[in-house]
Write a structure and sequence with these properties.
There is one protein chain. With 431 residues, this protein is of the alpha/beta class. The protein has three domains: 118 residues, 3-Layer(aba) Sandwich (Rossmann fold); 122 residues, NAD(P)-binding Rossmann-like Domain (Rossmann fold, 3-Layer(aba) Sandwich); 165 residues, 3-Layer(aba) Sandwich (Rossmann fold), CATH 3.40.50.300. The strands form two sheets. Strands 4-6-5-3-1-2-17-16-13-15-14 form an eleven-stranded mixed sheet, with helices on both faces. The protein has a six-stranded parallel sheet with strand order 9-8-7-10-11-12. The longest helix has 19 residues. The two termini are 32 Å apart.
Length: 431
């Protein structure tokens, strides 16, 4: 199985897994697409290496920051200074398909781009991609940004025009055929009602501050989903060599996610920090923390190691599945499950369907250093490091496909990690 993912923060809200996994299924490609998060680009690349990822889509805040970690940059990446796709082959290659997403989203609206004018709102990676793509098509581009100096810097790179926010007026805006907004919802630089005509492409596909404008009759709004879908099609071709169409993926946006945050399940190898992070997360969210191994020990009045020794792993997994099933019936809990729980098919299906699954990852040296070997029955009386490596290889694919989010829990403090996870869940409206 090949592995692909979107990497960013926040990222739980992303529709990319739904899009790519549907395409993999449609074209019978043995691959799976997940969501990755970490505190910085270096950690993202380490996580991708640990997981054996074949390709990444990169979103905020890493589109520009990831570039020092790639070895080959496609020409648009060099010009834009940002990427949204990374492929791991003989070398690590970076591509930018955001520019294609912008152009293809509006191609049906204009028969000729060369006599058209566009205003780009923002000066980040997405804005740079929009400027690059539209200029290649012959459009005259102007940039406006809250920090004027950043807009000026862009104008020097792309030889585009620039305007200060305070100089924006209704008459000025009426001169543009296209306005592209790249600011995150609900940020804005001027009153949207100042726009009285023309075409708007808003990168925000879930919420848009421009959604009411088409009622005026002279304003047309292109849903930001088109931007995402077109660059997804380009990324899919880059990953697989297969051409897909909009029809293949349009309905993905209408599907409800199975993820529920009533139970937040922490999964991963022993030693990745499920207990310490779980307790801190529970305290911050005002929830009950539950450790499935601890419940098993209390219920059977013996340690996990003793249960393994007396009954064997097969019977232990049945006990574990029953305990986890009971825990998943609860609400507002943080549930830490054993490292091998997802190896049981029934348990894997339960946590996938009934919990928000956050899998914690560290490199094997860190896991070995953290893990308390005496409490790990599968590690006793063996070369524990070799066993850990073998167990990780056996479990990796199941960790990958069962996760709503894979988080690199190394080189980050507990409170900082909690901040990352809570921020992602809040921005994705899961808590």
């Amino acid at each position: 199985m090949k592995k692909y993912a979107i990497a960013g923060s926040p990222v739980l809200h992303s529709k990319s897994p739904a899009i790519f996994n549907r395409l993999f299924q449609k074209y019978e490609i043995d691959s799976f697409y997940a969501k990755l998060s970490a505190k910085d680009p270096e950690s993202i690349m380490k996580l991708a290496q640990i997981l054996g990822v074949n390709g990444l889509n990169i979103t905020a805040p890493f589109k520009e920051l990831i570039l020092p970690y790639v070895s080959r940059k496609e020409s648009s990446v060099v010009q834009i200074g940002a990427c949204n796709t990374v492929v791991f082959e003989e070398c690590i290659s970076a591509y930018n398909f955001d520019c294609d997403g912008v152009v293809e989203s509006i191609r049906d609206e204009f028969t000729d781009f060369s006599d058209k004018k566009a205003l780009i709102i923002g000066a980040g990676g997405a804005a740079k991609a929009a400027v690059y793509g539209l200029q290649k098509e012959g459009m005259t581009v102007t940039v406006v940004n809250r920090t004027y100096e950043n807009a000026v810097s862009m104008s020097k790179i792309f030889k585009c025009k620039v305007i200060k926010v305070e100089d924006i007026s209704k008459s000025f805006l009426s001169d543009f055929d296209l306005i592209v907004n790249t600011l995150e919802f609900p940020h804005h630089l001027f009153d949207p009602n100042m726009i009285e005509s023309g075409l708007i492409l808003d990168a925000n596909y879930k919420d848009s501050i421009y959604s009411d404008l088409p009622e005026k009759g002279l304003v047309r709004l292109i849903d930001g989903r088109k931007w995402l879908m077109h660059h997804a099609i380009k990324s899919f071709k880059c990953f697989t060599g297969v051409d897909a169409s909009l029809n293949d993926i349009e309905s993905c946006f209408d599907e409800e996610t199975n993820a529920s945050s009533s139970v937040i399940c922490l999964s991963g190898m022993p030693g990745v920090g499920k207990t310490s992070l779980g307790k801190a997360l529970a305290e911050r969210l005002g929830r009950l923390f539950i450790d499935s191994d601890e419940l098993i020990e209390n219920h059977y009045e013996m340690s996990v190691s003793a249960i393994f020794e007396k009954y064997g792993e097969s019977d232990f997994r049945k006990m574990e599945q029953q305990i986890i099933s009971e825990c998943l019936q609860k609400t507002d809990v943080i549930l830490s499950i054993g490292g091998g729980a997802i190896t049981t098919t029934g348990t894997l299906e339960m946590v996938e369907n009934k919990a928000l699954v956050i899998t914690l990852m560290c490199d094997l040296d860190c896991i070995h250093e953290r893990a308390s070997i005496g409490n790990r029955p599968l590690l006793l009386n063996n070369d524990s490091k070799l066993v850990l490596k073998s167990l990780f290889r056996e479990r990796l694919n199941k960790y990958f496909i069962s996760s709503d989010l894979i988080f690199y829990n190394q080189g980050v403090g507990i409170e900082e990690a909690v901040d990352f996870l809570i921020s992602d869940m809040e921005k994705s409206e899961l808590i």
